[in-house]
Specification:
The protein is mainly alpha-helical. It contains 16 helices and no strands. The longest helix is centred in the middle third of the chain and has 15 residues.
Length: 260
C-alpha cells in the first residue's frame, strides 16, 4: 500500500496504483471506499476491463447482482478472452438462479484454461442446483494444485450431505476461521453457504473482516439471510456501510434488518 500511495503522489491518476489501493481497501472490508476507487479508475481508464471486473465482484458478493451484471458485461465486451471475467459471469448467473447458463460459463472458462481447466467452481453451481452427484464428481479431486486438506474437507462435506448425522464430524474438521481468514478458507465458507449450513456464522464468528461470497445470495441460503447473525456478518464485512451509501441488495426483503 505504501508504494501505491507514493506512486499516487507522483501520478494521481495512475490506474495501476489506484487498483492496488482499491484492492487493499476491499480486502480490508472497506467496501464502500473500494467501490469509489474502482469507479475513479473507470473514469481514468474507461477501456481497461480490470476495474469493471473487480467492481462486479464486490456488487455480486454483496447482493447487487443487477449492478454486478452491468459491470461484468462491460468487462467482457472490452476483452472477451479474459477467463476470470467469464468465471465471474458464471457466478453472477448462479446468484440469479440461472444454473445451466452458469455451468456453461464455468465450462467455457475452464476450456480456455481458467484454474488450469479445473471444473471445481462448476461444482458449486451443481450444488445450488441440487445436482449433488455432479457436484461430488466435479469437486472430489479439489482444485488444481490443491493439497489433501481440501480433498478431505470436500469428502467429509459430501458425507454430511448424504447423512446429516455426519455433519458434526465435518464441523469438527473445519473448526473455525479465527480472526484472519486465509485464502484456502474461502472454499470452506462457500461450502457452508452452498449447503445452507448455519454453522457458517459460528465458523466466521471471530473473523474481524469476514469474506463475503456469491453463494450467500443463492436461493438456498435465503433462510439464513433472514437471521440477525447474517446482518452482523455483513456489517463486519463492510457490506452494510456500502448498502447505506449506495442502496441495499436486490433481494433486500430476505435480509434481516432490511429498511425497504
Amino acid at each position: 500500500l505504501a508504494a501505491a500511495e507514493q506512486a499516487l503522489l507522483i501520478e494521481p491518476d495512475s490506474a495501476e496504483a489506484l487498483l492496488a489501493t482499491a484492492g487493499y481497501m476491499e480486502y480490508g472490508c472497506r467496501l464502500a471506499e473500494a467501490v469509489k476507487m474502482y469507479e475513479k479508475i473507470i473514469e481514468v481508464s474507461p477501456n481497461d476491463p480490470t476495474a469493471h471486473h473487480w467492481l462486479a465482484l464486490i456488487w455480486n458478493y454483496t447482493g447487487s447482482t443487477g449492478k454486478a451484471k452491468e459491470e461484468i458485461d462491460i468487462a467482457h465486451a472490452l476483452d472477451p478472452l479474459i477467463t476470470a471475467v467469464i468465471g465471474v459471469q458464471g457466478e453472477i448467473e448462479m446468484a440469479k438462479g440461472n444454473y445451466e447458463e452458469a455451468r456453461e460459463l464455468h465450462q467455457r472458462a475452464a476450456s480456455m484454461g481458467f484454474y488450469g481447466g479445473n471444473l471445481f467452481d462448476e461444482g458449486y453451481v451443481a450444488l445450488h442446483q441440487g445436482d449433488f452427484a455432479a457436484a461430488k464428481m466435479l469437486m472430489s479431486q479439489g482444485r488444481t494444485g490443491d493439497d489433501e486438506e481440501l480433498i478431505e474437507e470436500v469428502r467429509l462435506f459430501f458425507a454430511a450431505l448424504e447423512d446429516p448425522a455426519k455433519r458434526p464430524e465435518f464441523h469438527e474438521y473445519i473448526g473455525t476461521a479465527g480472526e484472519k481468514v486465509t485464502f484456502p478458507e474461502l472454499d470452506t465458507v462457500m461450502l457452508l453457504a452452498a449447503s445452507n449450513d448455519p454453522y457458517l456464522f459460528e465458523y466466521l464468528a471471530e473473523a474481524d473482516c469476514p469474506p463475503v461470497v456469491d453463494d450467500l445470495w443463492a436461493a438456498g441460503f435465503r433462510e439464513q439471510r433472514g437471521k440477525p447473525e447474517f446482518l452482523d456478518l455483513m456489517k463486519r464485512a463492510g457490506a452494510v456501510e456500502l448498502w447505506e451509501q449506495r442502496g441495499w441488495p436486490d433481494d433486500c426483503e430476505s435480509v434481516y434488518g432490511c429498511p425497504e
